[in-house]
C-alpha cells in the first residue's frame, strides 16, 4: 500500500511548506499566487490527513492493556514532546532577536510558554500532545459503539470550528495557543482512522491512478469554490472532511514517487525538527541582508521547505537511535522501575 506512506509524506510536506512560507515572510519574501493557492488548498488537508493516517494504524495500541499503551506509545510521545521543548524555545528566542515582526518575544514569555507546554502546547509540537490525548480518549471509548463515537466526534469538530472558535474570538484563541485552540476539531479524523480502517484501506486501494487523478482534480475545483464562498455554518468542517478525501486521492496519484514515500516513513523526525531548520535559514537571510527578488523570491519558500525536510531526514540518519527520537537508556532504566518502559521510535 504505497499510498499510505505517500499520504503521510504529503501531510508532513504541507506542514513544512506553510511554515517555510510564514517564516520567510518575516524576511521580506512575498509568497507568489501559486504558493498562496497551494497553502490555501492545503488548509483542509494538512492536519485532517495527518490525524487520519495516525489513527489508521493506532488500533494495535488501543487493543493492548493500559499498561502497555502508557509504557509504550504514550511514553515515547511524551518524551519527544518534552525533549524538543528547549529546542523550540531556542529557535523561537533566536527568531525574536533576529527577525522583524515577532510578538511576545521576550525571554520570560518564551520561558513561560515552555514551562506551560504540558497544559498549553504551542507551535508544531502540539500535534504530539494531541496524539497523547487522542490515544487516551480512544482507549477510554473502546467499549462505545463506533457509530456513537463517530457521530459525537463529528459533532465536536463541527461545534468547535463553527461555534466555539468564533465565540472565543482571536484573542482568546491566541491565549489558548494552537493546541488547545484547535485539537478538538481533529479527534473525529483520528477516530475515523481507527474505526473505519478496513473501509478506508479497501476503498482507497481500489482507486486507480486515473480515477485518483480525476477525483483529485474534482476536489481541487470543489475546494476552490468552498474557499470563495461566503461563510456558512460548518464551512471549515466541510472543507476538512473533503480535504482528508482529497489528500487520500493525491496519495493514490503520487504513490509511486519514492522520495515522497520515504518521507512518509520518517514523519516524526521531520515534524519535530523542520521549524528549527526553517528559522535558522530565515535568520541567515536576515543576517546576511540578502535581497531576494524575482524568480529567486518565488522559489525561496519551496527551497527552504525542501532543505528543511532533507536536513530533518539527515538528522534522523545520523541520530536515529539517539535520545532525540528514542527514550534514552537512563529513562528506560528509570521507567522500568515504575512500569513506564520506553518504546523505540518507528516511523
UniProtKB/TrEMBL annotation:
Alphabetical list of PANTHER family matching this protein: O-ACETYLTRANSFERASE WECH
Signal sequence segment: none
One cellular component (GO) term of this entry: plasma membrane
Organism ancestry: Bacteria, Bacillati, Actinomycetota, Actinomycetes, Micrococcales
Provenance organism: Pseudarthrobacter niigatensis
Membrane topology according to the record: Multi-pass membrane protein
Protein keywords: Cell membrane, Membrane, Transmembrane, Transmembrane helix
Name assigned to this protein: Membrane protein YcfT
GO terms for biological process, alphabetical: enterobacterial common antigen biosynthetic process
Assigned protein family: Belongs to the acyltransferase 3 family.
Amino acid at each position: 500500500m504505497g499510498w499510505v506512506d505517500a499520504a503521510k509524506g504529503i501531510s508532513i510536506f504541507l506542514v513544512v511548506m506553510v511554515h517555510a512560507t510564514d517564516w520567510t515572510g518575516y524576511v521580506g519574501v512575498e509568497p507568489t499566487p501559486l504558493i498562496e493557492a497551494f497553502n490555501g488548498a492545503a488548509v483542509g488537508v494538512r492536519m485532517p490527513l495527518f490525524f487520519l493516517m495516525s489513527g489508521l494504524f493506532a488500533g494495535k495500541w488501543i487493543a493492548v492493556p493500559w499498561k502497555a499503551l502508557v509504557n509504550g506509545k504514550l511514553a515515547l510521545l511524551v518524551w519527544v514532546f518534552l525533549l524538543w521543548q528547549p529546542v523550540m524555545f531556542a529557535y523561537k528566542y533566536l527568531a525574536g532577536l533576529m527577525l522583524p515582526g515577532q510578538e511576545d518575544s521576550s525571554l520570560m514569555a518564551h520561558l513561560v510558554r515552555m514551562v506551560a507546554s504540558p497544559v498549553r502546547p504551542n507551535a508544531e509540537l502540539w500535534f504530539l500532545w494531541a496524539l497523547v490525548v487522542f490515544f487516551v480518549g480512544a482507549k477510554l471509548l473502546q467499549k462505545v459503539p463506533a457509530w456513537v463515537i463517530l457521530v459525537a466526534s463529528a459533532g465536536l469538530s463541527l461545534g468547535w470550528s463553527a461555534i466555539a472558535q468564533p465565540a472565543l474570538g482571536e484573542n482568546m484563541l491566541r491565549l489558548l495557543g494552537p493546541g488547545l485552540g484547535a485539537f478538538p476539531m481533529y479527534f473525529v479524523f483520528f477516530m475515523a482512522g481507527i474505526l473505519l480502517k478496513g473501509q478506508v484501506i479497501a476503498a482507497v486501494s481500489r482507486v486507480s491512478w486515473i480515477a485518483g487523478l480525476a477525483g483529485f482534480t474534482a476536489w481541487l475545483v470543489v475546494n476552490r469554490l468552498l474557499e470563495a464562498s461566503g461563510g456558512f455554518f460548518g464551512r471549515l468542517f466541510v472543507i476538512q472532511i473533503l480535504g482528508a478525501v482529497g489528500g487520500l486521492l493525491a496519495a493514490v496519484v503520487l504513490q509511486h514517487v519514492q522520495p515522497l514515500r520515504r518521507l512518509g516513513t520518517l514523519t516524526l523526525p521531520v515534524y519535530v525538527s523542520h521549524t528549527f531548520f526553517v528559522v535558522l535559514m530565515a535568520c541567515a537571510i536576515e543576517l546576511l541582508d540578502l535581497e531576494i527578488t524575482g524568480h529567486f523570491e518565488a522559489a525561496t519558500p519551496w527551497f527552504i521547505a525542501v532543505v528543511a525536510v532533507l536536513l530533518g531526514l539527515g538528522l534522523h540518519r545520523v541520530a536515529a537511535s539517539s535520545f532525540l527520537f528514542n527514550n534514552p537508556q537512563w529513562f528506560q532504566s528509570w521507567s522500568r522501575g515504575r512500569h513506564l518502559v520506553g518504546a523505540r521510535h518507528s516511523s
